[in-house]
Design goal:
four-stranded antiparallel sheet; single chain; alpha+beta; 11 strands
Length: 238
């Protein structure tokens, strides 16, 4: 494969020398004049044809080089994707505790049933295996999450120094549950900036919650990013 212009030129020159120049008779007396004229004409037309092929090959090489340059430019100017301020690690109604072996669930039963909306998933249940049988050891009825049909979910987990907290995410507020000590925080709302005005019913809705080091980061619609320190969250426990 000929990738460079110089290779194309050298190849064509060598081809002309071998195919035509070396075949021209050394003496005019060796062949008749009419044959000599035809040979010269054939040589001239052959040279013109090969010259055209040479120009076409050079043009093709230039086009290929321009294409490679454009591709390299596109790769070098590509910008990395912007990372979100915080991220939900998972959204699930069941949490399996590594520290205690307990199972924490957000369930619906007769105590949370709503006549208009039906099942309401806001019962916080804690289960533990005793003699190979899973038994309920704790239960709490959480307040309505804006509407009975709005579910709670576990957003993220904080585990350090024999502590294990799980974040229970609602629509406009959240709780922190201490699995080891069986303690639940009060309602925690994202702090609103000064002169905050709700644009619609979705304003203030929690979008993400995730622990980053020793603080809980989050984002809320029309409020933006917010965070709480571990010390502040501990003070909300009861």
């Amino acid at each position: 494969k000929l990738n460079k212009r110089e290779d194309v030129i050298n190849f064509t020159s060598n081809f002309l020398t071998m195919k035509y120049i070396n075949k021209i008779p050394n003496s005019k007396s060796q062949i008749p004049r009419r044959v000599r004229v035809c040979s010269v004409l054939s040589l001239e037309f052959g040279i013109w044809g090969l010259g055209f092929i040479l120009l076409l090959s050079c043009w093709a090489c230039n086009q290929e080089q321009k294409t490679d340059t454009a591709k390299a430019s596109q790769v070098s100017t590509k910008q990395p994707d912007t990372l979100p301020v915080s991220r939900p690690l998972y959204q699930s109604p069941t949490f399996l505790s590594d520290a205690t072996g307990k199972t924490v669930q957000i369930a619906a039963d007769s105590t949370s049933y709503d006549e208009k909306f039906g099942d309401s998933y806001r019962v916080l249940r804690v289960l533990e295996e005793v003699n190979d049988i899973e038994q309920e050891i704790s239960r709490r009825l959480l307040p309505i999450n804006h509407s009975p049909d709005f579910r709670y979910n576990f957003a993220d987990v904080y585990a350090e120094s024999k502590q294990e907290w799980v974040v229970i995410q609602g629509n406009y507020f959240f709780f922190v549950y201490d699995v080891v000590n069986d303690r639940l925080s009060e309602k925690i709302f994202p702090p609103k900036p000064r002169n905050y005005e709700a644009a619609d019913a979705q304003s203030g809705r929690i979008v993400t919650l995730a622990f980053e080091g020793n603080r809980l980061n989050g984002t809320a619609q029309d409020i933006g990013p917010f965070h709480f320190t571990i010390k502040h969250l501990r003070q909300t426990m009861r």
